[in-house]
Specification:
single chain, 12 strands, globular, 9 helices, 4-stranded antiparallel sheet, alpha+beta
Amino acid sequence: MELNTEILTAPPLDAATVVMLRDGQDGLQVLLMRRHQASQVLGGVYVFPGGKLDAQDQSPAWLQRTSQDHPTLRALLNEPELAAERAAGLFVAAMREAFEECRVLLGCGHVAQAATQALQQALAGGQTWHDAFEGQPLLLNTDALLPWCRWITPQQASVTNKRFDTRFFVTRVPDDQVAEHDNHETTETLWIRPGDALLRYWDREIELAPPQIMSLVHLHRHPHVQSVLDEARQRKPPVIQPEPFDDEGIRTICYPGDPRHSIQTPAFPGPSRLLFKNKRFEPERGLSALLD
């Protein structure tokens, strides 16, 4: 992973990320997708499915098909300054990205299998997700998505050359849904326990970006999916604005709760800073700080 040294002045782009969860035999598992090595953003890195908010995500046609009204969705995001239509669009974007990137149709109940096949055929025929979905008698069950946190890329971005204002959602993947990569944007689908993903990262078997590292540290504290969903329902999604600085030539990213951060209340468990060493980000105390 290469360190970005450019100062980004453009405003962050709205985006949605879906942290997909399931219960395995040994406990909680999370879905990671490996981005194509040639990708301009985090090529070769393992990420959660997600992407930018599209204008069409906010069109009236979609906003009339959500299972929850727009003020409710805005309240769930805990962003009173955000237009209700834009808040609803972020939920739509999360569902769209889940299907486009790994063919998982969230919150559509018993009709999901037939609808998934129809949508896949439509996309293979060149239709957009919006056009393909419009022809299906489906409701966008936004209840299946729970806001988890909000990450805002700082101007001194460390691993990308773009800024994003990303809303992270957590969801339970239905048992009858099978995630698969598209061999275009993503080249591998990996269901894995959060702690095992962190071990593989530490052993340099996979690459992770800081938001994924810190999210996996948090999820590692949960034994099963219901535990994650219960936490999401019991609190408002925290806003995470990393504050990077260089210390003796080492790029350091600190998070809420760190002595150097402007916000002293922690947003999540685990280490409060990551240091860029040997072309990756690590906590000061090493692996133990990730798995304590």
